[in-house]
Write a structure and sequence with these properties.
With about 625 residues, the chain is mainly beta. The chain has 4 helices and 40 strands.
């Protein structure tokens, strides 16, 4: 494999071997040595620039000579650096974080008019901190819902809808692991602790080929790596919860760690009052934990291990409304767990590789018990999804005007939509269990080329192939991705994009229930995967004075094979072991109907790019509309 990669590199580089050198390395934050993804390295007084990848690595090949580079990144002071290129050179740029204090001026780092991409928002963590807190908690979703094209999800969920899609059509990933339920406290808070986060990026259209699996958006969230130089920590106390974060070096400048946790304490505060009521016990709390360690093995190899665990728990015991000798209790819980192991390797100044293995779990359980005299009845309902997967990505910085990415990903999904256990010792110690499992395999192969064709014209061309194997059926789909930008002048551009997306899982929602009882189910031989086509067109303009950036985007999206429960059906009726004939109990496939829909709209956004108090505003010029025509 290594010899093959070197051969490809040699063949692709023949044309630019003469009198050219490559400058490559990482962009890092000076004090913590955190990598800075997406930083821009631009040649001063030139149109040529390169952007660091999502792991902070950059590479630019130029004719031998002396150059002055300007390095930019959102939330960091810009840096100028002069270098004489006569041979391949490795250099790490270190940027200083801008202090978000009164009197400090904030400047946008990248021209939106010149960026090839559209329908994308990179959110500075400082913006999350500056949004008014709800009950002492800084929430990333509060910022997300302020963006154009994003609407609040249904009541009882902290989810969001993008361009007319459903909450299940958003791919939410934390360090490359999928988060299936992003709610705490019945929707008041998201699962993401802002103190542990480094970067947040929302993509609504014009998707790079490396992303798929959902129809409406990608929310890519990365955790901090941990300070490699100093031990630091912070904590906060709110009305409902407290949080604490600690990070620091394990081996200075080589290895570091981060650990961050939150917990509500409403249940603890209520205990003294509930103890006075001997027949009542109730409580609710949520907790979550983020952890990450990383180790730089040498100049070419680094490994990272990160994880997240979050859980909501509600419990109640009540004997007031029951007859003497009777009691009832209920426990209800839901949560996510993720784990990611990543290896970064630099094959050459131009070739960067990333290998990732990840695990995701979401489960919801309801446990009910009743006791009277010498009899008891217990029912436990569980719904869960488990993913384990791996992916391998290569980034080839072929030329300052051309960067190619290629990758492969495979995921094993285990769906348990409705596992029901019933125990009744009043019926001859009856014990019934029913758990229908669906095992599916999803594979994706992609290639993506970011190509600056001329001074005015740039394109992002991608192709993604996907395969989904489920019992009795294998689906194959091709997903082309095209984004283009044409500069009208130095401050104004027109952009357009076209994408096809496929989603091989569905979320069955019980309307009217403000609890996380939604069920994830796979596409099957009877239930087809969701599919969307999206077209977008926009105008982008940067104004040096008065330091404003604005955009107008219009989009049109069609969606096929959207499913929902039949009228009157619910999650409690699936795979019922108490049915007269359990062998013929209906599955979710028998309880759903499918249809199609469309959504269109226009978004206007204006943003201040320089000053002491950055701000943004948006207006929907056309209301997003979706209509579903019921099918079979």
């Amino acid at each position: 494999m290594r010899k093959f990669l070197y051969l490809c590199f040699i063949l692709c580089s023949i044309y630019d071997m003469a009198a050219q050198s490559t400058l490559s390395g990482f962009v890092k934050e000076h004090h913590s040595q955190e990598h800075i993804p997406g930083a821009v390295i631009r040649i001063r007084d030139s149109e040529k620039f390169v952007a660091a990848n999502e792991y902070g690595f950059y590479s630019i090949t130029l004719p031998d000579g002396t150059y002055t580079f300007d390095i930019f990144a959102p939330g960091y002071e810009s840096l100028g650096y002069t270098v004489s290129l006569g041979k391949d050179t490795e250099y790490t740029f270190e940027l200083f974080t801008k202090e978000m204090l009164e009197g400090v001026e904030i400047t946008a780092s990248k021209s939106k008019a010149r960026d090839t991409r559209m329908s994308i928002h990179q959110i500075d963590i400082q913006d999350i901190r500056s949004v008014p807190a709800l009950l002492g908690e800084k929430d990333v979703f509060k910022v997300i819902k302020l963006l154009p094209g994003v609407q609040k999800g249904q009541e009882g969920s902290s989810g969001f809808n993008v361009r007319g899609g459903g909450t299940d059509q958003n791919l939410i990933i934390l360090d490359d692991a999928v988060v299936y339920n992003a709610s705490h406290l019945f929707g008041f808070f998201s699962t993401f602790n802002g103190d542990a986060l480094k970067g947040v990026e929302l993509i609504k259209g014009g998707y790079p080929a490396k992303y798929g699996e959902r129809l409406s958006s990608v929310l890519h969230i990365t955790m901090k790596e941990g300070n490699k130089k100093y031990y630091t920590g912070e904590f906060g106390i709110g009305l409902l919860s407290s949080r604490a974060t600690l990070e620091g070096p394990i081996i200075k400048d080589k290895a570091s760690f981060l650990i961050s946790g939150r917990r509500t304490y409403g249940d603890l505060l209520l205990q003294p009052f509930l103890l006075a009521q001997e027949d009542v016990m109730a409580g609710y709390y949520f907790s979550d934990l983020n952890a990450k360690v990383n180790y730089q093995i040498d100049d070419e190899n680094s490994i990272y291990l990160s994880g997240y665990f979050g859980r909501d728990r509600f419990y109640m015991r009540d004997a007031i409304f029951t007859a003497p000798g009777q009691s009832s209790s209920m426990r209800f819980g839901w949560g996510n767990a993720t784990g990611t192991l990543r290896w970064n390797h630099i094959f050459h100044q131009k070739l960067f590789a990333n290998l990732t293995v990840n695990y995701s779990n979401y489960n919801m359980t309801v446990n009910m018990k009743e006791k009277w005299d010498n009899e008891s009845y217990q029912m436990k309902l569980m719904s869960a999804i488990d993913d384990i997967g791996a992916k391998y990505d290569l980034s080839y910085f072929w030329h300052p005007d051309n960067t190619v990415q290629i990758g492969y990903k495979v995921t094993r999904h285990l769906f348990r939509p409705n596992a029901l256990t019933v125990k009744d010792n009043g019926m001859s110690d009856t014990s019934l269990e029913e758990s229908r499992k669906y095992i599916s395999w999803e594979q994706n192969l992609y290639i993506d080329d970011e190509w600056k064709i001329s001074k005015n014209l740039a394109m992002n061309l991608g192709l993604r192939g996907s395969a989904f194997t489920t019992p009795g059926k294998t689906y194959f789909n091709i997903e082309p991705r095209i984004s283009t930008r044409w500069l009208l002048n130095d401050q104004t551009s027109v952009k357009a994009s076209y994408t096809i997306m496929n989603q091989y899982m569905h979320l069955l929602t019980s309307t009217g229930i403000n609890l996380p009882t939604d069920l994830w189910v796979p596409a099957t031989a009877k239930v087809a995967p969701q599919r969307a086509f999206q077209y977008a067109l926009g105008i982008f303009k940067d104004l040096a004075q008065p330091h404003l950036s604005f955009s107008i985007e219009g989009y049109y999206k069609t969606m096929n094979h959207i499913i929902s429960y039949n009228e009157g059906a619910s999650f409690m009726e699936l795979d019922d072991p108490l049915a007269p004939d359990p062998e013929r109990a209906q599955t979710f496939e028998d309880k759903v109907t499918s249809g199609e829909g469309y959504s269109y709209g226009a978004e206007f956004m204006i943003q201040k790019t320089k000053g002491k108090t950055p701000w943004m505003a948006f207006v929907h010029l056309v209301q997003n509309t979706i209509q579903v025509r019921r099918g079979q």
